[in-house]
Amino acid sequence: MISDNQIGACWVRTTNEDGDIDDSAHFFSISLCKPHHENGVGTAQMPAMLEELGSQRFERKSLSVQKENPAVRLYKRLGFEIIGDGTDESEWLMLKDLSKYR
User: pTM score, two decimals?
Assistant: First the structure.
């Protein structure tokens, strides 16, 4: 259940599931409640999370996103690169090198 003051979440999975490329690139996720889409919250939240992950020696992060999702632009601005389709043709699988954060 989401409280009135909760606007979203950001997390990392370190499992061998969809979105994990190899042992150095685990799955990164962010989700915002709809009223907070496209108002800068993700742009502010993601760099801090990526910096934290890089400082903890994570080498790379991957994510999957629906191809028509406007967040693709944000991920590209943050340095994620499209490396192919996600779990199906409707998604992109994207990857970011975290070495600059170490």
Answer: 0.75
